[in-house]
Amino acid sequence: MSGPVIRPIPVVILISGRGSNLRAIIDAVEHDDLPIDIRAVISNRPAAGGLQYAAEAGIATDVIDHTEYTERAAFDHALQVRIDACQPELVILAGFMRILTEDFVSHYRGRMLNIHPSLLPEFPGLNTHQRALDAGCKVHGASVHFVTADMDGGPVFLQARVAVRAGDTAEQLAARVLEQEHRLYPQAIRLFAEGRLSLRDNDEILLDGAVMDQPLQLPAPADAPGP
Ligand code: GRF
Predict the structure, then answer these.
(1) Ligand 1 center to 77 CA (angstroms)
(2) Atom in ligand 1 nearest the alpha carbon of residue 115
(3) Ligand 1, atom 1: nearest CA belongs to which residue?
């Protein structure tokens, strides 16, 4: 007997670059029944590699080039108008490298997710892998969180941990974290798409109706350290 049929929720995905997370999400829609309907992929950079992949997958793409706007607020407004034309229930930031205005963030409160390559609250911002190595971390990873006005500081609900190996370079560590991001993001999106997650006014997350007191962890990859 098959389970209940879940209506795919409309989403818009924002990218700035190569789009490997976008690709993992599209693959999960095509092969793992991830219940989302990707209405558009929008990039702030015309050369973003992910645009081509989306187009090849038959998804509508658009570019809103931030260099054509002198004001951050004007860019965010144009982006918001374009997103809202798609009437998404969820906005997915997948390597979208922009600082967002408070108005934009509050407009999508509780319905915008981001993936970040660290175990937040450790290492918000850039160069997370080198910073984790410099700090002597034994474990690093990636997090998915609701986006709030606090950059990379919104409530986290799912993480993947990655062991740091002796002699790792930032590039080697980044590659192993990215592999986990590709498992992590589709699963995080699934929780939202299945209606299991919501964000409260006080920034608490409800999962299946109960307040989360800490993020869920994806089952460890083979090389992760023991408990
Ligand atoms: C990923 O590491 C993601 O965590 C961060 O930006 C990178 C985007 O990579 N926010 P890609 O464009 O998805 O390949």
Answers:
(1) 23
(2) 4
(3) 95
- Mean pLDDT for the stretch of residues 5-12: 92
Minimum CA distance residue for ligand 1 atom 6:
95
Q: State the DSSP code for 156.
A: E
pTM, two decimal places:
0.95
pLDDT in tens, 192-206: 999 999 999 999 999
**Angle ∠(172,174,176) on CA atoms, nearest 5:** 75
Residues noted as catalytic? 116
Indicate if ligand 1 lies below 6 Å from the C-beta of 21.
yes
pLDDT for position 227: 45
Instruction: For residue range 145-162, list pLDDT tens digits in order.
Output: 999 999 999 999 999 999
Instruction: Let me know: does 13 contact 38? Beta carbons within 8 Å.
Output: yes
Sequential DSSP letters for 80-95 = HHHHHTT--SEEEESS
Q: Ligand 1: distance of its center to the CA of 166 in Å?
A: 24
Q: Is the pLDDT of residue 207 over 80?
A: yes
Helices (H), ranges, 63-220: 72-84, 102-107, 128-134, 170-193
Question: What is the Cβ-side half-sphere exposure of residue 184, based on CA atoms within 13 angstroms?
Answer: 34
pLDDT at 131: 98
What is the 27 CA–ligand 1 centroid distance (Å)? 16
